[in-house]
Amino acid sequence: MMPHHSPLIKRSILAIIMMFAFSFCMVPLYNALCKATGIDGKGLLQQDSQYTAGIDVSRLITIEFDSNVQPSLNFLFYPSTKKAKIHPGEPYTLYYHMNNLTSDLKIVQAIPSVAPPVGSKFIKKLECFCFQYQDFYPYQSLMMPLRIVIDPELPSYIHTLTLSYTLFDLSSHS
Question: What is the pLDDT of residues 112-131, one digit of tens each?
């Protein structure tokens, strides 16, 4: 004879399974939403590494670099610098440090966002670890390059941009 809590337990287990499945769908859903709306930094597309816009030496833009890790992912992920001042049109390179703290192979991808959102149209990524999935072996540590340039057409009222990356675990999607 089943206890009277059986329906509640079954619904709770089903809810847990659905939440677990939903968490694995987050990256593809996020990508689809950003592609459809064009917001949240997803306008940052790979640019020609021979970017030729002129450098605007009359302006300095502060760019802040941020990093976040999906809560269930046991990784270190941080930029080599938190802030830089660069002229629009001037290429700038920094590195993001990534370290797999687990004994498992992890497949990860960093998803960018920009604040203010209008700034995403003006940050051109010449080289970025976010263009493709990254395989990380157990306890592997890498420094991943990010090479950007701010388009000189950036509106004059914008003096600071924040480029943030969130690292997601895609290991279950492989």
Answer: 999 999 999 999 999 988 88
